[in-house]
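Researcher: I'm preparing a figure for a lab meeting and need a structural model of a single chain. I don't have an experimental structure, so a prediction will have to do for now. The sequence is pasted below. Please return the structure as tokens so I can convert it later.
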Amino acid sequence: MTSGPVGMGVISAADIARRRTAPAMARTDSVRLVAVAARAPQSAAAFAGRFGCEHLPDYASVLDHPDVEAVYLPLPTGLRAAWIERALRAGKHVLSEKPLAMSHDSARHLMRLARDRGLVLVENLVFPLHGQHRFVQGLLADGVIGELRGFASEFGIPPRPAGDFRHDPGLGGGALFEVGVYPLRAAQLFLGGELRLHGATLEYDDHGVDVAGAALLSSADGVSAQLGFGFRHAYRSGYTLWGSEGVLTLGRAFTPPESHRPVVRVERQDHVEEITLPADHQFVNGLELFAQAVRGGKDTQALTEISLRQAALVDAIRTGAS
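Model: Understood. Here is the structure written out token by token.
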């Protein structure tokens, strides 16, 4: 079995790669950044200079590089599936930004292709790997708020600038793909994977791109989940768990900086408590999980199933929204 850090190539010097993922690569010994390519050569050169890797003339050159074992794909949603498939057919493991593809069928095809070729394909939706969520799950298991009766979660970000790819339907733009998958995954985390959609709304702009939405779901045992998302909002990122004996709230749930110390608020009839947790680096955690999977020490089948159930729910919201 191969050992040592996983040689990574980056396809697109996107904002998320520059701000979060590449700096996280520098913080872990599990991966080694080998090369980057970007649509604009000057962007690739700047990225390479900052993070100490090669810059290549085009995406295909990253797949051809002999030291690249795996690729990280922060491309816009509408471009991901095609390049994930090209990377898998080139024999590369893939860490892709979320969502993997624009439909459940496409995501399932990619997961099957990865499995058939003995490769790792992981969706880089890393917030569940932050220690704050394990702590919350522990409180629930200990009965701190009694039996769970309801779940609510919102993720909203301010309006994106003119020309941003998130407003381009041809690039898979839209609030559901960009931010809606976060509260949807949080509902899976706390209510289980088998969620049923009862209703949804999507608000569209003049270009036919969804800019806000909401969904109502329930778990197999009848616990409801109310989700809201959009990018015409003040920043909001959190969830609330409503139990038979109390309420638990977590803010900054989805994109906390690595220096952020989360605060879990627990309210009961005669008691309010705020618990401050240690900082954690969810992007480093995600890279280390991916590297373990590539090196054969981590089974990602459970992650595959979660991603595919999420993709099916996104399909249901898109087709069933009023």
